[in-house]
Amino acid sequence: LFGRLFGDTLPEFYGASEASQAPRINIAENDRSYELAFELPGLDEQAIQVHVQDHVLTVTGERKDERESEGKRWHRVEHRYGQFSRTISLPQDAATNGVEAVYKQGVLTVTVPKLPESRPTKVQIKAS
Q1: pLDDT by residue, tens only, the chain of 128 residues
Q2: Which residues lie closer than 8 Å to 32 by C-beta, 6 or more apart?
Q3: 17 — phi, psi (to 5°)?
Q4: Under a CB-based contact definition with an 8 Å cutoff, are residues 8 and 23 in contact?
């Protein structure tokens, strides 16, 4: 179900290197909102951008290679550098206004509120 609701937009167009650059994500929901947590360790919040348009959430940024190379021969480099992007289609009950993003300890948490009319409401029962 979540694969259909929160599918990556156009994943078949990603090349192998671009797909490996895309940050990993956890998605949760409650009655009032969706919460998307992106793994982005080692970045400054200024290096991350979040955009929402037409029920599509896009997180982009760049991890710069700031390794000191003078006097060193690198034998293995597994850290990923360069630009990254992750695009997620939001469900129809997601509100595109009021989206909040918080970056803490390498995790970007984006909270997307649900539309008020899609939230459960309690119906008062009247005795007759």
Answers
A1: 455 566 655 444 444 444 557 899 999 999 999 999 999 998 999 999 999 999 999 999 998 888 888 888 888 888 888 899 999 999 999 998 999 999 999 999 999 999 987 667 788 888 88
A2: 113, 114, 119
A3: -70, -35
A4: no
pTM: 0.75
Task: Count the helices and strands in the chain (H runs, E runs).
Answer: 2, 7
Q: For 6, which DSSP code?
A: T
Q: Residue 16 burial (CB < 10 Å; 0-12/13-18/19+)?
A: exposed
SS (H, E, C) 52-93: EECCEEEEEEEECCCCCCCCCCCCCCCCCCEEEEEEEECCCC
d(CA 88, CA 101): 15
Q: How far apart are CA 28 and CA 107, in angstroms?
A: 14
